[in-house]
Amino acid sequence: MVEQAVKNGVLFDYVLADNWFDSNENIRFSSEDMKKKFIVGINSNQLDACQDEGKKGQHQNLSSFKPQG
User: Fold this and answer.
1) Which among 30, 36, 40 is positioned nearest to 13, based on CA atoms?
2) CA distances, 54 to each of 4, 34, 41, 44 (Å)
3) Where on the phi/psi map is residue 27: left (φ > 0), alpha (ψ -120 to 50), or beta?
4) What b/e readout covers 34-65, taking b as 16+ CB neighbours within 10 angstroms?
5) pLDDT tens, 9-42?
6) Of the four listed, 17, 28, 32, 65, which is most buried by Cβ atoms within 10 Å?
7) Are 26 and 3 a contacting pair, CB within 8 Å?
8) What are the C-alpha distances in Å from 18 to residues 15, 53, 57, 59?
9) Residues 53-61: what's their mean pLDDT?
C-alpha cells in the first residue's frame, strides 16, 4: 500500500501502522526503500535492544527498559 501511494504521487512523510505490521522487513521497506518514517505500536513483551547491544545479539524484554529523563 505504501509503495502504491508513492507511485500514485501521494505526498506523506510518515507511515503509521498497528503493531501487527511491526516486522523488521516492513520497517526497513518503509524507511530505506520508500524513504518514509515509520511509526508503529509495539508490545511490551517484545524483545529489542539498543543499537550496540543488538549488534552483539543482546536483546531484552521491552518492559525492562527504563525511561530516561
Assistant:
1) 36
2) 32, 24, 20, 17
3) alpha
4) bebebebeeeeeeeeeeeeeeeeeeeeeeeee
5) 999 999 888 877 777 787 788 878 888 888 877 7
6) 17
7) no
8) 10, 26, 26, 22
9) 60
Cell triple for residue 15? 507511515
| H helices present in 1-69, as ranges | 2-7, 24-28, 51-55
Amino acid at position 18, single letter: D
